[in-house]
Amino acid sequence: MVTRMKILIVEDDLEAAAYLAKAFREAGIVSDHASDGESGLFMASENAYDVLVVDRMLPRRDGLSLITELRRRGIHTPVLILSALGQVDDRVTGLRAGGDDYLPKPYAFSELLARVEVLGRRKGTPDQDMVYRVGDLELDRLSHSVRRQGKEIPLQPREFRLLEYLMKNAGQVVTRTMLLENVWDYHFDPQTNVIDVHVSRLRSKIEKDFEPPLLRTVRGAGYMIKDDRIAEA
C-alpha cells in the first residue's frame, strides 16, 4: 500500500490556502492548514508531516521564527518557505533560519509541487531517526527526552541540541565550526567560549554518577561522543 504524502500549509491568506489545499489534493497529497504562526508551530510540533509549506509573513509568529523554534525543538521536518520577499538576501536569510527551500511569490504550482515532492523524498534518511543511542545513553527526539541507564536526565534546549548533534555523529570528531553552524546557527566564529561552557555542562549531566565516560575532547580538533570501555593510555 502506497502511503500518501501529508503536508502542513501555514498561510494566513485563506483564499490562497484553499487554492493550495485543492491543488495538492488533486495531486494526491493530503494537507492540513494553519492560519497563523503560533497555530502552525503547535500543529507542526504535535503531528507528523512530510513537508511544511510556510508563508514568511504571518500573524502572531512570523515564518522564520516558526522555523527557528521548530529546529530548536529538534524537529527537522523539511520546510519550503513561500514569500513575496524574493531577493537573494531574503532567500539566504530564510535558508539560514532553517528552511530547506525558498520559493518567491508569485509562483507556478507545478514548480511548488515539484519542490515539495523533492523535499518529501528526504524523509526516511538517517537524520530522521527518532532515537539515538550511544552505549547506555539514549536520546529520544520525539519525546525530547534523554536517559542513561534508564534514568531521565533533564537538559536545557541548547544542551539537548548539542547532545543530539553529537549523538547523530557518534564515533566521529565534531569540530567547533560544525557545532557553531548546526547547534547555534552561527556562520561565523563569535570568538567566545560558549561551546566549551555548554560541553562542560552537558558532560557533567550525562556522566555524573555514570560509567564509563562518553563525551571526550579531541585536542586541536573538537569533540566526540563514543562508547569505548577500553581505558585510554
From TrEMBL:
The modification 4-aspartylphosphate is found at residue 55. Residues 129-227 form the OmpR/PhoB-type domain. InterPro entries: CheY-like_superfamily, OmpR/PhoB-type_DNA-bd, Sig_transdc_resp-reg_receiver, WalR-like, WH-like_DNA-bd_sf. Pfam families: Response_reg, Trans_reg_C. PANTHER family: REGULATOR OF RPOS, TWO-COMPONENT RESPONSE REGULATOR. GO terms for molecular function: phosphorelay response regulator activity; transcription cis-regulatory region binding. SMART domains: REC, Trans_reg_C. It comes from Rhizobium fredii (Sinorhizobium fredii). Residues 6-120 form the Response regulatory domain. Residues 129-227 bind DNA. One of its GO terms (cellular component) is protein-DNA complex. Keywords: DNA-binding, Phosphoprotein, Transcription, Transcription regulation, Two-component regulatory system. This is Response regulator. One of its GO terms (biological process) is regulation of DNA-templated transcription.
